[in-house]
Predict the structure of PEP-CTERM protein-sorting domain-containing protein.
Amino acid sequence: MPSPHRRPPARPLQALACCVALALAGAAMPAAASTVLSSNLDQTSSDTLEATATDWLAISFVNTTTLSSSAVLLATLAATTSSGTAALTLYSSDSSGLIPGSALAAFTATSSSAGTLSFSLTGTTLTTGSTYWLVLSQDSGASQWSWTSSNTGSGSGFTSTWADSTDAGATWFAESTLYPLQAAVSVSAVPEPASALCLLSGLAALGGLARQRRGRAQAASSTHPTGAQP
């Protein structure tokens, strides 16, 4: 009697090897390039304004990209902290579009060097075409933020509009586009780690194959006892 037709077994080992290769290839890929939304750091600085626990400074920019929650928003200010700790917060714009509205999220300080303070923010989705604000404040002490006599800059989201508050953000004063504060805002995309899911799928396939082999071995052992001829 002919043997029944059997479907060829899957090859999870090859699948796992493929997944591991894809994961390693993804890890070796360079990070995605940043998109500059707004910058005037290349302009000549004229003087500085001071940010304190009560005197807050802010600049606006427009989000011209589709920013997902997995992207990183980067901000570099032409500023230095003389004492205390500088805090940077992302704000929405009020209905007029001329001053900050509500606080959305706090940035994390990443580095400071001669004349610059750098911050990053993840986990926030921004609306394309909307205006947002970077608000600089202090827990104590003071920071000095440079401004320039030029109202020009680069990036599709550059506005050159800034504002200040003397009562810790309770009241804002919209300033003209002259003498804007200096900063750069960019977006860096973070690719989703699909390789981890692929690796888990390969491991699951290996487990299934092991179970199938144990089942066939047990069936063969019960059908053909030790020493019996098949």
Summary: The first strand starts at residue 34 and ends at 39.
